[in-house]
Design a protein that fits this description.
alpha/beta; ATP-binding; about 425 residues; five-stranded mixed sheet; 16 strands; about 15% strand; D-Maltodextrin-Binding Protein, domain 2; 2 domains; globular
Length: about 425
């Protein structure tokens, strides 16, 4: 089945011809309460799935490990997943690896790094940090504080992310390392579910976190945290969440997969339009979904940040990009960058076989089958990343998938541990 979509007429598209070979088109989808689940939620709430003859049954879950396991055990047909999760699964990483692929990225953006107000105030005093300091300046200031803490015999900061195989983990580590901080020995990294991060920060259980929206803004508006970096500061094109599914389910539900991709594509276009953000924010705020204040969600969608409770603000253009710039395209070179970070931090071994397995997690062929051969970007599926204006890594590195080993070895800060696959979980 091949269908194409356009921005101006998605509401008038007819569903593809129905066939009876796949049974019921009820698709059960797990998700975590985050704004980057918007495309899935909009697909169910605003009729995009129904238009394609699908009933999308959304199930809210509490942790990424749960989502992974319930997909593996067949309780979910598809799932809202962290972009590295299919890569990890195809590499056999984690306590319960099960083959998982993605034909569709759910967008870019949404992550940020928040530190406790106490820690940020110490950074300001130690480094003479200004209120308008950028992400790299903030990381370097934290490095100065950690050096001082070690000299005084103090416990190093405890920092939280959501899952060992997550964009949050790799972005947090990337930001820390760019500032001269070794995530392996200069801080303690722990796992905390996104909705609990603000409370954990307020209680002093953690000193900072990297999670998706709206939980960074919740912490800053409560006066317990300061946002010091956003995903766009680290690498703007990094894929955030994807639609995960089992390869066997995909193969036995080919038409349903295509219909679902068509519905998601239409919903992603709708989510990108500013005039739809009030309706989207109202839907996301519902207790069935994110259960966060609608005004915070609306500000997050607009990229309008209260960095702290003192009135410091920042506006990030395209903080969420649900469709534009081919944000939904599952590009294998991005899967390979994720793999490079797994190697960099001792989660995976470097080998040609592992590189092939990592790239196989992202399936642009399924995307193009659903939306038409010309639906994807004009450049190669495996390309150099971070070499264009507006899409550079914060430390100036460029990722060439043809030279993976050289890329990893080119970082001054990287793990010296041997890879121990299968041992990390959350």
């Amino acid at each position: 089945m091949v269908m194409t979509m356009n921005d101006s007429n998605t509401s008038d598209l007819a569903a593809p011809p129905r066939t009876a070979d796949e049974g019921s088109r009820v698709v059960r989808a797990g998700f975590i309460p985050l704004v980057d689940a918007s495309v899935l939620i909009a697909t169910a709430e605003f009729g995009f799935a129904e238009r394609e003859g699908i009933k999308l049954d959304l199930v809210k879950d509490v942790s990424w490990a749960n989502v992974r396991d319930r997909l593996a055990f067949g309780q979910f047909d598809v799932a809202h997943m962290l972009s590295p999760m299919p890569v990890a699964s195809m590499l056999g990483l984690g306590s319960n690896p099960s083959p998982t692929i993605t034909p569709f990225s759910l967008g870019r953006g949404g992550n940020a790094i928040t530190l406790s107000t106490r820690l940020f105030e110490r950074m300001t005093a130690t480094a003479g940090l200004s209120e308008t300091a950028g992400a790299l300046e903030n990381a370097r200031a934290l490095a100065m504080v950690i050096k001082d803490m070690k000299a005084r015999g103090e416990t190093v900061p405890t920092l939280a992310m959501t899952y060992p195989f997550s964009s949050h983990n790799y972005e947090f580590r990337y930001w820390l390392a760019a500032g001269g901080i070794d995530p392996e020995c200069d801080v303690k990294l722990v796992v905390v579910p996104p909705p609990l991060t603000s409370d954990a920060l307020a209680a002093g259980a953690i000193d900072g976190f990297c999670v998706g929206a709206p939980w960074n803004m919740v912490a800053s508006e409560r006066g317990v945290g300061r946002i010091v970096a956003a995903k766009q500061d680290i690498w703007p094109s990094a894929p955030e969440k994807v639609l995960g599914m089992r390869p066997d389910w995909t193969e036995s539900h080919t038409e349903t997969v295509s219909r679902l991709v068509v519905a998601l594509d239409a919903a992603a276009r709708w989510c990108d339009r500013v005039e739809n953000h009030d309706a989207l924010a109202a839907a996301l705020a519902d207790p069935r979904y994110i259960a966060a204040p609608v005004q915070i969600i609306r500000h997050v969608l607009a990229g309008e940040f209260n960095l702290d409770a003192k009135g410091n603000r920042r506006v990030i253009d395209d903080y969420f990009r649900f469709h534009g710039g081919f944000a939904n395209y599952p590009r294998p070179s991005q899967a390979l960058w994720i793999y490079s970070q797994m190697v960099r931090w001792g989660q995976a071994e470097m080998s040609p076989a592992n590189a092939r397995a990592a790239a196989s997690a992202y399936r642009p062929d399924l995307y193009r089958t659903a939306l038409g051969g010309a639906s994807g970007p004009p450049d190669a599926d495996i390309r150099i990343e971070g070499d264009k204006d507006g899409d550079r890594f914060m430390d100036g590195h460029v990722f060439d998938p043809a030279h993976l080993a050289d890329y990893v070895s080119g970082f001054a800060v990287r793990s010296i541990r041997p890879a121990t696959p299968g041992t990390e979980d959350a």
